[in-house]
């Protein structure tokens, strides 16, 4: 791991932090490649229940692509190659086998916004925001973010977000459906993240993998018949797992203790 990304797993939660606060956590090609490696390496850890992706400091989750790093990309062929590599990094997040929560400690701009919606859920500090500001640089989305935005908001609202190119404050982003939860004013960000993550971290790892498989199927537009087969297979696996029968016995025991019917 480089000094620009830290990752650690504890109690079923993988915590990944982009650590370039002095550069507003801009996404260089090297950083994106490392981000891809982090998620690909952790994908086989069956003890994980979820992942949290955040960044250092309190100004920026990610201020887009690192323009100094990308200044050498001058041809259409090179631009497409760069976009393809970056999209592969975000695909490692999209396809991660358990839910990924983007904890927006600050603004997510351009490619940073694309990274945020590559995650399954987004939560935000009260002062944070999300902005698809690519149009300000006279470019389009490149890393799959436009596709994700259309799926998330529908074509009309997504097109408005892209065309306006504004930074949407956290509360407004929540009303729009881009963000699931916003911290209370003055609430420490770590406390807020912990409060949001706590109930997710109580789920069994195999259950979270089953839930995420459904989200991946929706994101990829898989046919219903294929989704039904996947759902049935994963239901079977979770049904016969010891965790299921432990939970059932716990309910029976509670029933017996309260004199309820079995």
**What is the CATH class of the largest domain?**
Alpha Beta
- CATH architecture grouping of the largest domain: Alpha-Beta Complex
| Portion of residues within helices | 40-55%
Task: Figure out the total of helices.
Answer: 11
Indicate the structural class.
Answer: alpha/beta
Distance between the termini: 53 Å
Major sheet size, sense and barrel closure: 6 strands, mixed
Beta strand count = 10
Strand order of the largest sheet: 1-2-3-5-7-10
Mean pLDDT: 95
**Annotated CATH homologous superfamily of the largest domain:** 2-enoyl-CoA Hydratase, Chain A, domain 1
Tally of individual domains: 2
Measured by DSSP, the beta-strand proportion falls in 15-25%
N-to-C SSE string, H for helix and E for strand: EEHEEHHEEHEEHHEHEHHHH
Radius of gyration (CA) equals 20 Å
CATH topology of the largest domain: 2-enoyl-CoA Hydratase, Chain A, domain 1
Shape: globular
List segments where confidence is low: pLDDT < 50 over at least 5 consecutive residues.
none
Describe the structure.
- The chain is α/β, with parallel strands linked by helices and 262 residues long.
- It folds into two domains: 5-202, 2-enoyl-CoA Hydratase, Chain A, domain 1; 205-257.
- Helix content is 50%, strand content 16%.
- It contains eleven helices and ten strands.
- Strands 1-2-3-5-7-10 form a six-stranded mixed sheet, sandwiched between helices. Strands 4-6-8-9 form a four-stranded mixed sheet.
- Strand 1 (5-10) and strand 2 (13-18) form a beta hairpin.
- It is globular and about 70 Å long.
- The model has no long low-confidence stretch (mean pLDDT 95).
């Amino acid at each position: 791991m480089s000094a620009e990304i830290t990752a650690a797993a504890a109690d079923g939660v993988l915590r990944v932090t982009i650590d370039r606060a002095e550069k507003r956590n801009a996404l260089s090609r090297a950083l994106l490649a490392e981000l891809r490696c982090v998620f690909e390496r952790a994908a086989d850890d069956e003890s994980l229940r979820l992942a949290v992706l955040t960044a250092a400091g309190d100004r920026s989750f990610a201020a887009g692509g690192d323009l100094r790093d990308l200044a050498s990309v001058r041809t259409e062929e090179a631009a497409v190659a760069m976009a393809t590599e970056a999209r592969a990094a975000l695909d490692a997040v999209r396809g991660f086998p358990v839910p990924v929560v983007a904890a927006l400690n600050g603004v997510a701009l351009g490619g940073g916004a694309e990274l945020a919606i590559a995650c399954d859920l987004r939560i935000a500090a009260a002062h944070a925001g999300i902005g698809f500001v690519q149009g300000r640089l006279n470019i389009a989305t490149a890393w799959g973010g436009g596709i994700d935005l259309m799926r998330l908001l529908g074509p009309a609202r997504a097109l408005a977000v892209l065309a306006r190119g504004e930074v949407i404050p956290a509360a407004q982003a929540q009303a729009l459906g881009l963000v699931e939860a916003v911290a209370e004013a003055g609430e420490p960000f770590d406390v807020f993240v912990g409060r949001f993550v706590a109930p997710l971290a109580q789920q069994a790892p195999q259950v979270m993998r089953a839930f995420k498989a459904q989200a991946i199927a929706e994101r990829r537009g898989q046919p219903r018949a294929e989704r039904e087969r996947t759902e049935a297979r994963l239901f079977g696996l979770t049904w016969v797992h010891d965790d299921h029968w432990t939970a059932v016995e716990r309910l029976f025991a509670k029933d017996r203790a309260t004199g309820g019917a079995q």
